[in-house]
Specification:
The complex is a heterodimer of chains A (310) and B (283). Chain A has 310 residues and is α/β, with parallel strands linked by helices. Chain A starts with 6 loop residues before the first strand and ends in a 7-residue tail after the last helix. Chain A is built from ten helices and 14 strands. Chain A has a six-stranded mixed sheet with strand order 6-7-8-3-9-10, with helices on both faces. In chain A, strands 2-1-4-5 form a four-stranded antiparallel sheet, covered by helices on one side. A four-stranded antiparallel sheet of chain A has the order 12-13-11-14, covered by helices on one side. Chain A is elongated, with a radius of gyration of 23 Å. In chain A, helix 2 (101-112) packs across helix 3. Chain A folds into two domains: 7-229, P-loop containing nucleotide triphosphate hydrolases (Rossmann fold); 233-292, Alpha-Beta Plaits, CATH 3.30.70. By secondary structure, chain B is mainly α. Chain B has one domain. Chain B has ten helices and two strands. A two-stranded antiparallel ribbon of chain B has the order 1-2. In chain B, helix 6 runs parallel beside helix 10. Classes of the chains: A alpha/beta (310), B mainly alpha (283). The interface between A and B is medium-sized, with 32 and 24 residues.
């Protein structure tokens, strides 16, 4: 996605304090971020970091104490009608337990003043894998089924941006796979912008273009996934004898042992020189590759002091 | 707006508690009249004196008195509490995109509550009319002379109009209570307390006046209780509801004054419901 495109969603110094002055709790502190059209944007943070509060402010469910939420260039506070272009799933979707999934979608569609034709609703139920269960009352749905119904509700009025808060919560492995495909499809096949909050870092790593990491109410890092994973990486070297190989490289780069291999703090461009030095020193080179850090490593390194305070 | 109304209708007609609180009246009346007809056919009870046309018509229109009675007010309060506070209990307010839809959502709830309640009471009145006639037939009595379509319409219309003000006041006050407390139980308790205190104050206010004459006099004129009773009196009796105070003063206001006060209370509370919901943080 081009960085020059106008942002679909912008948060400028947004903050939220619950309660009165003095005894108030600052849940979100000056969060700023920007999401471009067609992007799949991940929003990560430990429990209690302020993710859900931030999302609720994006949706106008709660009013920010300070700052500005802009959707499609419009200030949300001044022009709440812009939310017509937003679909959302918050807290796994909340539905009327005494109505069927199909009837719930009809209620949501009618409340939003959107399309509520049976064909449209059936197509969405089919898209989220609930075609057979659409006639059942929601009180009999599993958590995963409610999540999927929530995604269908978010897509009812064909929004331009879909904001999903923990959409894979409660899903089994197959459900997570389906949801991942669905989210990818929203961006790739339907041109939607997706804002995804999740604590499943592996999922975020697989589907998102960019992420923001929030901790204690503040965005502590915003970057493209590739940049985040490679930023502090190195080269993983498998060579023998280990001490010979290590000795050949320590003069130039920092080297860390990693089991039977070691990590050399060198860039990818320096890989040929690493190979030459190893061979020159008489070491046998068995493997040389860019170290692949995963998002979990990055996330933990940034938010390590954070505790699960829910 | 029509879609919002349709969505509300869909919810309210499929939720058991709401369904019960709406259709309770026709079901109860139907059961009562079926028993009455069965007794009449079996001649279990002694034949009553034939009713007058006025009494016959009044019997068919008795359901419209419900909103003016304390027990009726409590039942209406329960209905409104479920409809409004239920959304907090089910966590479903966040299904809507706030601000844009909030006003129409509250308006749709008001509209649907009024429409369903009026349909239920009209149906109950229809059942009363039909079975009063059938019961008379079973007892071998003709419909009293003087019972005409015009007389029936006039009596039913008058009683329905008399019940409208207390119904709308209950709707407005309990909707606000539900939005502020976000609890069905709390809203219902507030409804019960209002229904009891309001009636009590209309009856006991004059007896309390010696302890604080000016204060009680002002409350009597400012609170909605007397005015709701007075409007009903003007509509059904054609005269003011008179409340005599121990110091010799009598409260007997014109219907326009009472209409203005009742409308101000009802409109104010309904407006506060819209405003409170629009400003609410939904977590």
């Amino acid at each position: 996605m081009s960085e020059t495109q106008a942002p679909v969603l912008e948060l400028a110094n947004v903050s939220k304090t619950y309660g009165r002055r003095g005894g108030g709790v600052r849940a979100v502190r000056g969060v700023s971020l920007s999401v471009a059209a067609g992007e799949v944007y991940g929003f990560l943070g430990p429990n209690g970091a302020g993710k859900s509060t931030t999302i609720r402010m994006m949706l106008g469910l709660i009013a920010p104490t300070g700052g500005e939420v802009r959707l499609f260039g419009e200030d949300l506070r001044r022009n709440p009608a812009v939310l017509k272009r937003v679909g959302s799933l918050v807290d796994g979707g909340a539905f009327y337990p005494f109505l069927s999934g199909r009837r719930n979608l009809e209620v949501v569609a009618r409340t939003h003043g959107g399309a509520h034709e049976p064909d449209r609703i059936d197509a969405l139920l089919d898209q989220v894998g609930l075609a057979k269960d659409g006639g059942r009352k929601v009180k009999g749905y599993s958590t995963g089924m409610r999540q999927r119904l929530g995604v269908a509700a978010a897509l009812l009025h064909d929004p331009d941006i879909v904001i999903l808060d923990e959409p894979v919560n409660g899903l089994d492995v197959a459900g997570i796979q389906e949801m991942r495909d669905l989210i990818r499809g929203l961006a790739a096949d339907h041109g939607k912008t997706v804002f995804l909050s999740s604590h499943l870092l592996h999922e975020v790593q697989q589907v998102c273009d960019r992420v923001a990491i929030i901790s204690k109410g503040e965005v502590v890092r915003e970057a493209r996934i590739a940049e985040l994973l490679s930023g502090e990486g190195g080269l993983r070297v498998e060579a023998a004898p280990l001490d010979v190989a290590e000795g050949a490289l320590t003069a130039r780069w920092a080297v860390e042992r990693d089991g039977d291999a070691f990590i050399v703090r060198a860039t990818r461009d320096e890989a040929p020189e690493v190979a030459r030095r190893l061979v020159g020193a008489g070491a046998n080179l068995f493997g040389l590759a860019a170290e692949q850090r995963n998002l979990e490593d990055v996330f933990l390194s940034i938010t390590q002091p954070e505790t699960d305070d829910a | 707006m029509l879609d919002a109304l349709a969505a509300e209708r869909l919810k309210l007609t499929r939720h058991k508690a709401t369904w019960f609180l709406v259709w309770l009246y026709p079901i109860l009346f139907l059961a009562f009249y079926l028993i009455a007809v069965a007794l009449a056919v079996g001649h279990v009870d002694p034949p009553a004196r034939p009713p007058t046309a006025e009494g016959w018509i009044a019997q068919t229109a008795v359901i419209w008195k419900l909103p003016g009675q304390s027990i009726g007010r409590m039942l209406i309060a329960a209905y409104v509490a479920v409809v409004f506070a239920g959304e907090y209990g089910w966590n479903t307010w966040k299904l809507i995109i706030p601000h844009r839809s909030r006003a129409s959502l509250v308006a749709a709830k008001f509209g649907t509550i009024v429409a369903l309640f009026l349909v239920a009471l009209a149906l109950t009145a229809g059942i009363s009319l039909l079975f009063t006639w059938i019961e008379g037939l079973a007892r071998g009595r003709a419909v009293p002379v003087g019972v005409t379509a015009g007389a029936l319409l006039q009596a039913h219309g008058r009683e329905a109009l008399a019940g409208l003000a207390p119904f709308l006041f209950t709707l407005a006050s309990i909707s606000l209570a539900a939005v502020l407390t976000r609890s069905m139980v709390a809203a219902l308790v507030i409804g019960v307390v209002i229904a009891i205190l309001e009636k009590l104050f209309v009856q006991l206010g004059p007896y309390l006046s010696p302890y604080a004459p000016g204060f009680v006099w002002s409350l009597y004129h400012g609170l909605p209780g007397y005015h709701l009773a007075n409007l009903a009196s003007w509509i059904t009796e054609g005269a003011a509801h008179k409340s005599a105070f121990p110091d010799g003063r009598v409260v007997a206001l014109g219907w326009t004054t009472s209409l203005a006060v009742a409308a101000a209370w009802t409109g104010g509370l309904a407006g506060a419901t819209f405003a409170a919901f629009r400003r609410q943080d939904i977590n």
